What we know:
metal-binding, disordered C terminus, 59% helix
Amino acid sequence: xxxxxxxxxxxxxxxxxxxxxxxxxxxxxxxxxxxxxxxxxxxxxxxxxxxxxxxxxxxxxxxxxxxxxxxxxxxxxxxxxxxxxxxxxxxxxxxxxxxxxxxxxxxxxxxxxxxxxxxxxxxxxxxxxxxxxxxxxxxxxxxxxxxxxxxxxxxxxxxxxxxxxxxxxxxxxxxxxxxxxxxxxxxxxxxxxxxxxxxxxxxxxxxxxxxxxxxxxxxxxxxxxxxxxxxxxxxxxxxxxxxxxxxxxxxxxxxxxxxxxxxxxxxxxxxxxxxxxxxxxxxxxxxxxxxxxxxxxx
Length: 298
């Protein structure tokens, strides 16, 4: 906060060992992140680049990037997926709450990570519980631990362990992709993101590219989504009047749905006016720009 007061919401620093533009302004960050990589050329820490790979949607540019982004975005906005996510979210939350103990603390961020990962993996590759999901989660935890590690790749380093974990994840997901190709019908409806990408006829969408990007799409379930859920609960807890209104609104909907004998739907959630009220939360987004490296020293 002191830095923002002194230098403003957008300032130059030297994070990651080179000139970096730091943006804490929501509108500026939105423009940067939604650009076509021509105005702002993305550049990332070396360890992250090695882990993401050359096929990552974070790295590729041009028509292929737009094609992948368009395919994924279109499916994620579909009514079918929204209905599935609503059902899955309720299921996984109920399963998680069943394991809570009245005499033990509940670590919200850990619980949110567990739930968000299950929802994401189900939407991405239709994997729903079982040993295969647990194995994938184990490899994913090792993989993500190296995203901001020191860029040293040899046995014993975190980056090396993370790269090995990613290879194991790619192997698991590649098996799922091959199974989908064996049963896929061109006129069949896509059940997950993997189906959408497998269905595309572009020769550029190789199995390795699909697998690597599916792994990349799991990352929000580890970081941004659980953090936002934790902050939402924290700030609601700090404001009893807001928590009371939030609780009353949701319980009222619950009573109505139980009376009608209907499950909660995505549109029901959107109808909660207080719950949907937008609250501005300051997110410090670090955007590492290649062009910033050419700036003269102050």
